[in-house]
Design goal:
- By secondary structure, the protein is of the alpha+beta class.
- The chain has a nine-stranded mixed beta sheet. Strands 11-12-13-10-14-17-16-15 form an eight-stranded mixed beta sheet.
- The protein is globular, with a radius of gyration of 21 Å.
- The protein has two domains: about 170 residues, 2,3-Dihydroxybiphenyl 1,2-Dioxygenase, domain 1, CATH 3.10.180; about 210 residues, 2,3-Dihydroxybiphenyl 1,2-Dioxygenase, domain 1.
- The chain has eleven helices and 17 strands.
- Strand 6 and strand 7 form a beta hairpin.
- Helices cover about 30% and strands about 30% of the residues.
């Protein structure tokens, strides 16, 4: 399988599809206090607090902070007025992901095509422009509270310029002095781009949203995991991974399955006002050991694996790699164990991954740190160990 880098620029002349996706433009979080959240993500995960749009730039309704690292752009939004739509959402759901925004060649045409395909409008096309260029955005609703914005950029606001540190949108200003920015450049965490974004939906609705991504967005199924793959003694879930035509954007969709006790998906829903939403963002690194070590040094809380995990993992992984003619795992085995990293393999290679604990008081959104050495899967061999670790945390919270 060919892996397409998110930095690969698509050529609009080669496709007439208005829903051809170029990149994850940004992921918008709605948070109660963007200024404080920016400090947390900068300190804990090494993001640059790059730009801001708030009262100082003339924004009287919301404060927005742009965080960057590699090709990851996280936009933190805090409402400044009671009538702002995010005010109610934060009250209902707490901090979390509202919008997975996708760069396209023409946002208006992408929006119109998605509506023709059966999508429901979140907001109609809006142009923001000045003498330097224009950004056009339009949004459609997907599962629960989540929106996909289509973003097209021209002039100084084109995506290659933004990736190089250019201004994100008209009215935004660069943050010129922020002590953590210098520190993070000197002590990088090595996070490169969004590998995939996982959504949790209600029981019985996974196939509905699979069909929605097929019909509205033109995605296709990439992987499928049922309750035999993802289960423990107590809980289970089912998952289908949807991918855009070029496999650039991957959107796994989870639903709870019947078990003796409550699944992590059901726990998420109950603490998210029984509303589907984004469960986690997987952030890619080229060096799992370095990234996890640096994040642990900064105080990031990761799930702890059962002690028995490393008694079996190397034999299992090496067997799969040998069967398919791949080299064994090159990372130091003892260091992998010391850092608590999970390892899995398939016919294309192996991957290393680790999951944080929830990033806020409610047990909802978390991050995955993932490194791929050929494998394009999602750690199927780790599901049981991962879910046992999650259940330990659910038990501590009184939610199992």
């Amino acid at each position: 399988m060919t892996t397409i880098s998110p930095s690969t620029a698509a050529d609009p002349s080669t496709s007439s599809d208005p829903l051809q996706l170029i990149d994850v433009d940004h992921v918008r979080f709605q948070v109660a206090n963007a200024k404080q959240a920016a400090f947390f993500y900068a300190y804990a995960f090494g993001f640059q607090v790059a730009q801001v749009d708030d009262l100082t730039t003339g924004n009287r309704v919301a404060a927005n902070y742009l965080l960057t690292q590699g090709n990851i752009r996280i936009l933190l939004e805090t409402p400044l007025t009671p009538k702002h739509p995010a005010t109610e959402e934060i009250s209902r759901y707490g901090d979390g992901v509202k919008d997975i925004a996708l760069t396209v060649f023409d946002a208006e045409k992408a929006y119109e095509q998605a509506i023709r395909n059966g999508g429901e409008s979140a907001y109609e096309p809006v142009e923001t422009k000045d003498e330097h260029g224009v950004v056009t955005m339009a949004g459609i609703k997907t599962y629960g509270r989540v929106v996909h914005s289509f973003v097209s950029r021209r002039g100084a606001y084109e995506l290659p310029a933004v990736k190089q540190g250019g201004v994100f949108m008209p009215r935004w200003r660069k943050v010129e002095s922020y002590a953590l920015n210098t520190y993070n450049l000197e002590h990088p965490c090595g996070l490169k781009f969004v590998d995939h974004c996982v959504g949790n939906v209600e029981e019985g609705r996974m196939n509905h949203w699979v069909k929605w991504y097929e019909d509205v967005m033109g995605f296709a199924m990439f992987k499928h995991f049922d309750d035999k793959d993802i289960s423990t003694e107590y809980s289970a879930l089912m998952s289908k991974v949807m991918a855009s035509g070029n496999h650039l954007i991957k959107m796994p969709i989870n639903e709870p399955a019947e078990g003796k006790k409550k699944s992590q998906i059901q726990e998420y829903l109950e603490w998210h006002d029984m509303t589907p939403g984004v469960q986690h963002l997987a952030l890619r690194t080229d060096d799992e050991l370095h990234s996890v070590a640096e994040l642990r040094r900064r105080g990031v809380d990761f799930l702890a694996l059962p002690d028995t995990y490393y008694e079996l993992v190397w034999e299992r992984v090496d067997k799969v790699l040998r069967e398919h003619g791949h080299e064994p795992v090159r990372e130091d085995h003892e260091r992998v164990r010391d850092l608590g990293i999970l390892v899995d393999a398939d016919d294309e290679g192996y991957l290393l991954q680790l999951f944080t604990k929830p990033l806020q008081d409610r047990p909802t959104l978390f991050f995955e740190i993932i490194c791929r050495r050929g494998s394009q899967s999602f750690g199927k061999g780790n599901f049981k160990a991962l879910f046992e670790a999650l259940e330990i945390e659910q038990e501590r919270r009184g939610n199992l």
